[in-house]
Amino acid sequence: MNVRAALESEIDDLARLWFDGWRDAHAEILPPELTRLRTLESFRDRLLVALPAIRVAGAPHSPLGFCIVKDDELYQLFVARAARGSGVAAALIADAEERLAASGVRTAWLACAIGNERAARFYEKRGWRRTGTMINHAETQEGPFLLETWRYEKSLLPD
Hints:
alpha+beta
């Protein structure tokens, strides 16, 4: 599975993938106030800011999934519904781990919505360990939205 840098010209495609994936995974388990703030435009704005850190699986303008790393965090990982179970998520997370390790990160972390069991199972299968809960400052156009999440960590040191 080829993982590549995102193109600015595919921001709209990625925003749609993120919007659909976020609603599919989170709309039923997170506060309605946060769901109200998760608009297609809000995802587009966040993608434009994060563009240099976005990696994509799939052909240009036909993304199957994407991930974003931010400092020592696997910040976002979303896969299109049609591509779930196809190895896209595994390729994206492997790429993210490689990038984090190459930047000197020894222990990476990620936040997972409490109740997102599908994502939790995937992370655990890939060697991430739940270390507890944390208050995540979810980015919104109205400022941080404080949300309790599961915290996962993974040592990136060679065995």
